[in-house]
Amino acid sequence: MARRCYNFSTPSLSAISTIIMIMGCNNELSSIKITLLLYLLDHL
């Protein structure tokens, strides 16, 4: 699974993106969890 940092245009998702860049992109397990979270958010 490729590790990615996400960029969002809406304020709330932009805040999530910032948290992801701080926490997620440096930690393999966090990246996987965040990827799953974003997948769920994307398919609500």
UniProtKB/TrEMBL annotation:
It comes from the Bacteria. PROSITE patterns: PROKAR_LIPOPROTEIN. Keywords: Plasmid. This is Lipoprotein.
